[in-house]
Every structure is written in C-alpha cells, then in structure tokens.
Amino acid sequence: MFFVPIALIIGLDSAFFIYSETQSGMTWTQIRRGHGSRELGFDRASSQYGSSTRVRVPMKWVLGSKEDIQERVMNYRATISTARSRNDRSVQRPGFSLIELLVVMAITGVLTALLVPTLSSIRESANRVISASNQRMIGQALTMYASDHKDRLPRSSVIDLSTPMPGELMAAHFEYSNTGSEENRRYQPDYLAGWDGIGLLYALRYVEGHEVFYCPSHEGQHQVERYSQAWEDGRGTIYTNYHYAGHKNWETGLHRRFANPERMVLLTDGLRRQSDLSHRTGLNVLMGDGSVRWHELPTLLARLPVHDPVGIEIRDHHDLINEVFNLNGVID
User: Which of 13, 76, 128, 199 is close enough to 195 for a disulfide, judged by CB 3.0 to 4.6 Å?
Assistant: First the structure.
C-alpha cells in the first residue's frame, strides 16, 4: 500500500497506456512507466476491430479510477483530433475543376481579344510620333540644303526624264552607269555616284544616319535592315519609306521654292505601292514650314497600285501623286 507514495518520491511522474476501441467497448491498459517527461502524444496502430492509440499521460491521471482515466484520455484524444483536422484543412489546397479551368481560359481569351486592338492602337500611335519626328528632321535638312543652294531643293532625276516617273521619288540612290541609251543615262544621276533626291541629304551629310529615312510602322519590302549595307557602300537601288515631292512640278516644269511654305508639301509617307503606305489609314505630311501634319485618309490605300502599274494605271498613279504634292487636292 506504500507503492504509490514511494513511486512519487522517486520521481515516476508519467505512464504509457494502450487505449483501444473494440467490439466490446473502449479499453485501456497500462504498458509501462517512464521518467521525467510531461509531453502528451499518440502512436496509432491498427487492429482488427478498429484503432488503438498508445497514450503518454501525466502520472496524476493514473491516481484515479479507471473511468476517470478513460475520460481524460478520450477528452485528450478529441482535442488532438480537432487540432489535426483543422491543421490539415489549412494545409490542403484543393485543385481547380475542369469547368473552372475552362471558365478561366474563356475569360482570358475575351480579355486578350479586347486588349490586343488597344495595344496595337497604342503602338501605332507611338510609331506615328516617331515617323513624324523623322520627317521633321528631314525637313530641317531640306531647309539647310535649300539655304546652301539658292533656295533649290535636291534634284530628282526621275522627274527630269522625258517621261517623268514620280512613283520612284521614294528612291535615294540608283545604280550609277555611263552605259546604255541616252534616256537610261538621264535616268541615272550624273553626280555624287548615284545619290538622288533625299539621298543627297545623306551623301552631303545634312543628315547623319540613314535610319531617319525609315518608318517603324513599315511592313513592306523596304525595311531599313535590307538597305543598311547599301547605304554604307553607296551602291545599288535604295528605297526609303518616304515619298519626296521632288525639286520641281513635273507637270509644269516649275521649280519648287519656299515662297509659300505653309502650303508647300515636301514629303509624305510612301505612295509607290500599297505596301509602302506605312500607316494604312492615313499619312504624315511634311510641310515647307517644317511642320508635320497627320491626315486621316481611309480611301487612299485603295487608290494605290498593288503591283507595278501598267497602261492606264500608270497615269492614274501619277495623277494621284500630283494631287498630293502639286495640287494639294488630297490632303486639304
């Protein structure tokens, strides 16, 4: 009868028990005693009837009736189970169902369809600003050239021909040759090794880089990368993305001067072919006073030839360019 006091005196303050659920009910059995720890924990083991749990409990739990100890173990087990269940719910992250994924994909597709046109419009507006800046720099170079050459603009050999070719006013350089027919020799510039029109601004260093002659919106054949080496070497035929008005009115033969600069068109976006109209729905126009104006012209693209014009198409194309540069009928 002195066992419990003696146990307490020597420090045995905890014990292990087996708690089981069986067909006959709930039972518990003490399996051994331990020393010095007040932690409570479970080691689960399966049984043919249900589940059993090894429970480490404070020694004071033993100092009572079987019913008291059993109640304490059950309450402790319920507390631990609730805590574990709550922790499991916080850790688990359920995945998406197929319907949820389809809904998300559909919403993403709709938003993309709405945003792409807006982003394209923003990019096009930015490219127009860059293109206008390029034209403005070309305008300053033309003004300096005219100041140095008695108010004359750079010569364009293609409108000095017996049959003017205003559609080729986008060219900055032609392959120079002294051979061939007289007309071919007239077609080739006779000075500065083939530089022509606004290409003379580059040859004479009124502009420093050839990149200024190209629009970032251009998607046609005449990309800046295609002609980079040709600009450096001064060889071959080089097209720009801008259409020069020329040094004279090819219909009347009168030289173009800065007498009325605010009404004088010096340069526009390309008008040679449909693929040369960089902005599709309109064009930037460089005026003689150095200003650059945007003109919305949704029908202009359809009036330009798709391929090299033949027959009456040549005449129609020349008339359109004449309207833009000499009559101002298109952009007024």
Answer: 199
Residue type, 255: H
268 near 243, Cβ under 8 Å?
yes
Rounded-to-integer distance, Cα 3 and Cα 1, Å: 6
Q: For residue 52, what are the β-bridge partners?
A: 20, 45
DSSP annotation of 325? I
Place of tokens 């059995």: 29
How far, rounded to the nearest angstrom, does the alpha carbon of residue 196 sit from its chain's CA centroid? Answer: 37
How many residues are given for the chain?
Answer: 332
Distance of CA 326 to the CA centre of its chain: 40
What is the amino acid identity at position 290? G
Give exposure, 239-263, as e/b (b: 16+ Cβ within 10 Å): bbbbbbbbbbbbeeeeebbeeeeee
Q: What is the per-residue DSSP string for 250-273?
A: TTT-PBP-TTSGGG-EEEEE--SS
The DSSP bridge partners found for residue 124 are none
Amino acid at 45: A
CA 172, 305, 190: angle at the middle one, nearest 5? Answer: 25
For residue 283, what is the enclosing H or E element? strand 282-287
Sequential pLDDT tens for the chain (332 residues): 433 333 332 333 445 544 444 444 444 454 444 443 333 343 444 444 344 555 555 555 555 566 766 677 677 667 766 666 666 555 555 677 888 889 989 999 888 888 877 777 888 889 999 999 999 999 999 999 999 999 999 999 999 999 999 999 999 999 864 433 354 445 444 557 789 999 999 999 999 899 999 999 999 999 999 999 999 988 899 999 999 999 999 988 899 888 888 889 999 999 999 999 999 899 999 999 999 999 999 999 999 999 999 889 999 999 999 988 886 655 54
Answer yes or no: are the C-beta atoms of 266 and 142 closer than 8 Å. yes
Give the predicted TM-score (pTM) of the model.
0.64
**The tokens of 318 are what?**
């020349």
**Gap between the Cα atoms of 166 and 237, Å rounded:** 16
